[in-house]
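so the lab meeting is tmrw and i was supposed to have these ready like two days ago... anyway. pasting both below. for each one the top line is the aa sequence and the line under it is the structure tokens. i havent really looked at them closely yet so no promises
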Amino acid sequence: MLTRDVKAAFFYGVTTTGVFCRPGCASRRPLRANVRFFRSASEAIAAGFRPCERCHPTIAAAWGGPLDKIRAHLEDHLDRMVSLKELGRITDLSPFTVQRIFKRAMGVSPLQYQRVLRAGRLRGALKRGGAVTDAIYEAGFGSSSRAYEGAALGMTPARFAQGGRGERIGWCIARSPFGWMIAGATGRGLCWLALAGTAAEAQASLRTEFPLATLHRDSALSKWVEKAVASVRSSAAGVQDQAAPEALDLRGTAFQLRVWQALRQIPRGQTRSYSELARQLGDTKATRAVARACATNRVALLVPCHRVVGASGSLTGYRWGVDRKRKLLDAEKAL
């Protein structure tokens, strides 16, 4: 990123501006503490960042015009579902080809792209303040009920808009074998446990997630870092040594809470695929929803979303980095 390598295969988002770029972007370099890295443009959008208007990170050079047309058409019609047939008409391509080239370049289908873009815009609009209803329609949701069902905010739009307003969150930061860890807790329990490359990045992650909360240091929370590391490195079998459910302040939709609870039942040293978790929850069509719930998990290790892999066994994505996910799984399997 510092050398502006145009061939680098990743993206970066800047928390202070809400914009994400390619590494070769000519924009002014931000402070390291304000930077988050992503493997794909769709991951950046899902995290609430919008494309840079200078380097246009959502445009892939390989397919040039057709891909740009598809992307622009999807972004111009966020208030409704755009069919593959419709996209085929505007690009003179078959629906199959549209799906194939878009997913190859963007990492998601056109339908998924619309969904994550709407959710990302809603996050951005809510964080900028203003009325919740205005933010919902500005983001492209046709009704408030659709926003509450499909925004993947981890909480209702109204609650997300509060950004932790009125919350008093204690925090503690410490090194671990898997990088820097930061624990954040309300009076109800642990609400944030994140991994990062530096202490500054770890602290910034808490502030980004709860921008309006009152934060204060609490060294007593170091116990959560110890519990998290023990959940990976301890030789004890099962998940009994993990935090009791009542000690966690997990905020999400009913479905997300079900997924997070299912994650806590995966024994150390084992993995499950997204489709296996969907079947376990009684909905074989919920594979993508399970993946989104894993991606919005706020409590690393203790809610072990790193134990979920692709159907082929591939590591796929991880909120705190695929390399760190590999290291966690290797540590658990070595016991």
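ok protien two:
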Amino acid sequence: MAEQTPGASDDAVLDRAQRTGAVLLTADKDFGELVYRQRRAAGGVVLIRLAGMAADRKAEVVATVFREHADALRQSFTVIMPGAVKVRAHR
């Protein structure tokens, strides 16, 4: 949505992902604040923490996580880091 609607607030992005049943893929740590501190509902958030990694390698890592953890990504807050994936249910 952020690409479709530049300037959309994090709240609006999270709301739309929730309404449409989408898993939100982001590099913005602010979504952790919304999900955990503000207890906002989310169908699933995947935070990508792969700074310094080439874009094609990032895409490979993210695709692998989606293949291997597809069912767990819904209703979870997932963090993808070099060499690690943390999936934490938030509901």
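from a quick look at the 2nd one: The chain is about 40% helix and 20% strand. The first helix runs from residue 10 to 20. will dig more after coffe
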